[in-house]
Amino acid sequence: MLRIVLTSCLGIATALGVQAQNFAVYTPPVKKAYWSTSGEWIFSMPILDVNGSDQGSVVRFSPFFNAQGMLNYDLSEHFGLFTGLSIRNQGFIYDVPGDSLNRRYKFRTYNVGIPVGIKAGKMNGALFFAGYEFEMPFNYKEKMFENEKKEDKFNVWFSDRNEQFYQSVFAGVQGPGSVTLTVRYYLTNFHNQDFQETKDGVTYKPYAGLNCNLLTVSLGFALFDGRKTEFIRGDGGHEPRAMR
Q: Which domain holds residue 198?
């Protein structure tokens, strides 16, 4: 805010013919390559098809732990490319329809992902972005409730219960204050429907017919906001100062 006020005042003074002998503001070109980081608050809505029947959705909120780091390469002040690394808490809630025990399942994976995409707009300000992400789930958790009472819970590292890799496409905007809004759709089914387990001597497939593609909306901050340098000229030359 201070920088905006100073720059505006300088522009007005120049237009009025006021000569500022000891003060000037210089903004260098946007850096071509830089690193930026962000967290996410994720709202997940499953698009469910269970044995050919569409099911209602329950929104899942996951504020923790979601982190992203982006390697940005800006081709100009208005267009750039990016890739990076993410860790994401992703999952969904499923209420068994018509169940007398009111069973509810909560499924979750932690994923590590590699996004690639493009962005257009003001490279360190308001912009639009879109891309593709490849994710590998490394921890699976499942909870089961009956009549709102938790009856079962377990988690597995590198489980066969979920698909081994997820693919998603996403698009979003970065607006004032570097707040980002991202919409993401998972092309891959959440569970491995061929997974088998044996209980009481009976082998079955617990996720057969459970088709779920996740649609998520997430809020983040400063996902593509890179570092810039402001130079203020005083007596004897320029003084650099790093800023966000």
A: 32-226
